[in-house]
Amino acid sequence: MDEMTRVETEDGELIERIYTKNREVVPSSTIPDHVKDAFISIEDQRFYGHSGVDFKAIGRALYRDIIAMKKVEGGSTITQQLAKNLFLSNDKTWMRKTKEVMAAYYLERNYSKEEILSLYLNRIYFGEGAYGIQSASKHYFNRPVSELTIAQGALLAGLPKAPNSYSPIDHPEESMQRRNLVLSQMQEYGAISIEVMKRMQGSTLAVEQGEDEESNWSNSYVDLVIDEAAEKYHMSRDELKRGGYTIVVKMDPSIQQVAAEKMREGEFIPGSNGPVEGAFTLMDNETGALVAVVGGRDFKHGDLNRVQVKKQPASVIKPLAVYGPALMQGGFQPYSVLSDRKQTFSGNYEPSNYDGQYDHQVSLYQALVDSKNVPAVSLLDQIGIDYAKDYLDKLGLPTNDDGLAIALGGLSEGYSPLQITEAYSSFAREGKVVESYTISKILDRNGEVIHEHQPREEQVFDAETAWYMTEMLQTTVEEGTASQGDYQKALAGKTGTQQGVGGNKHVWFAGYTPDYTGALWMGYDQAGEEYSVQGSSAYPSRLMKDILTSIDQIQPLTASFDKPEGVEILPNPIRLPDLNQVTGTLDLAGLATLRGTLQWTPTDDERVVYRIYREEQGEDVNVGEVTGEGSYKVSAFGIFDETYYYVVPYDPLTQLEGEPSNRVSLNWNF
């Protein structure tokens, strides 16, 4: 028999049912005797005495058919009804009746009475889409068949003759009359006493339907489950609809509902041509299990599941295609200095920084935090495109493109949010990338496990590289391009903005906490000048942080990342100050000599080195330096000398100097 497939969590919580016919087969042992008696009483009181056909009932029906000169009464036994339901059509012809009798005899020879009754109760239609006694019990009374009362069992026994006419929902009076008739037949059959019959006939219908689940919060996830079952386990949607499987999934319903609600109601980037769409994924870092998937802002079954749609990744690709591989090469570290000047690369490729600002030189760390384009392209040019593509292959991000535009996500095809999520998880998992999945296991209708997820992971980056990327991407979230929005616990991530004509094509945020890795995409399904988003990647950054904050309120998330053993802490970047208020004072050092003191306000970062220069013809002289202090004493010089000094901040991490301060004149004014 066709039986619905259940999609449920590992705790047994039902998420959705997949079916053509809403049927849940139950064993005979779970069906109470009074429910069985109700059906036998109204349909076939000689069920246990005949061999599949009740000739007395057939004779009575035949007599009535002759009197009416047409087929008006069936006289079929439960076995015959089952035979017709299993093998035959509903045509009221003598040939069909003959086949029905033959099939009934076959069933009686090969199955016990209990098996036939169980097949019958699990097979028949009860109206309103409910097939089988279990589905009918849950539909009309919101309880399993094992908990049905005598009156409720009698009501269900009265439905199969005319499910629409006797519906307790649409026709309560007719339903009550039919139920009371069944109760009378039960008393006549000897299943209940007269007292019980009268008491039950005086009771209400006691219909209690479950809440109408019109919400589509789980639809994206279940559609992905169906796709995964087909791709990994070669189980078609049609097979799932009729196979009676139990699919155990890794969804966290509370997180899924939060994500679906926020994607539907949260702040989205404005667009040029109607509402902008979006996609969201969240994956458990330890296992690769997808705990939440939202394929659209108001996703319904069969819609385009955008978590699987490939889009150009923009700057989200930089950590994966450029910075991570560069750190693995050995010649680069977070404070390596990169070129940041307007330039043309091979193939006449001339990238620009998004803000049009250039620092001439910048650390790898700062280039990532500020999402500078030219340093990323320059670095890819140095490490080699083929070298970078090898890492993309290992991360599950293959590409046929071979230009430097890879550094900025300018790809011919692009990647899906699911692919980006898997790739970013490598930084959260000490360099190991893991395959994402929704299905933990699949059980057949007998409860036997027929498929089970087998985890697959690959070491792509070493633990040091993964940790350095985590530290840099945390800074990106705190004070870089992903700083928009508020989330109080550990989060590392990167934004991406794909530019277009008249606006941006789409925007990204991809990142991870110690617990989960996720991606959030916003944009249009269509391409073209008339479809553009009017805003920056601040929108997905804010929404991602909003979702994480809500999740944290439901189940507290980890507050900080754990550094891998044997890996050194990456020092925070040094921000060199602008020194424009350096002053100088003089003291007598002797009869004809002076000593000067330069003073300035130092930054709070005590690691900054301040180099003091004296102006000289030809080349200025570095006369000394101090670390973390705001003053320097100049050596004695002649009372009639006029000397100029200035201070330059110096970053010991990058070994780069900042901008010189104002010039200070130290001379004796008579």
UniProtKB/TrEMBL annotation:
It comes from Halobacillus locisalis. Residues 12-187 form the Glycosyl transferase family domain. The keyword Hydrolase applies. This is PBP1A family penicillin-binding protein. Residues 278-546 form the Penicillin-binding protein transpeptidase domain. InterPro entries: Beta-lactam/transpept-like, Glyco_trans_51, Glycosyltr_51/Transpeptidase, Lysozyme-like_dom_sf, PBP_transglycosylase, PCN-bd_Tpept. In the C-terminal section; belongs to the transpeptidase family. Pfam families: Transgly (PF00912), Transpeptidase (PF00905). It catalyses: [GlcNAc-(1->4)-Mur2Ac(oyl-L-Ala-gamma-D-Glu-L-Lys-D-Ala-D-Ala)](n)-di-trans,octa-cis-undecaprenyl diphosphate + beta-D-GlcNAc-(1->4)-Mur2Ac(oyl-L-Ala-gamma-D-Glu-L-Lys-D-Ala-D-Ala)-di-trans,octa-cis-undecaprenyl diphosphate = [GlcNAc-(1->4)-Mur2Ac(oyl-L-Ala-gamma-D-Glu-L-Lys-D-Ala-D-Ala)](n+1)-di-trans,octa-cis-undecaprenyl diphosphate + di-trans,octa-cis-undecaprenyl diphosphate + H(+); Preferential cleavage: (Ac)2-L-Lys-D-Ala-|-D-Ala. Also transpeptidation of peptidyl-alanyl moieties that are N-acyl substituents of D-alanine. PANTHER family: BINDING PROTEIN TRANSPEPTIDASE, PUTATIVE-RELATED, PENICILLIN-BINDING PROTEIN 2A. The keyword Cell membrane applies. GO terms for cellular component: outer membrane-bounded periplasmic space. Keywords: Carboxypeptidase, Cell membrane, Cell shape, Cell wall biogenesis/degradation, Glycosyltransferase, Hydrolase, Membrane, Multifunctional enzyme, Peptidoglycan synthesis, Protease, Transferase, Transmembrane, Transmembrane helix. One of its GO terms (biological process) is proteolysis. Transmembrane segments: none annotated. One of its GO terms (molecular function) is penicillin binding.
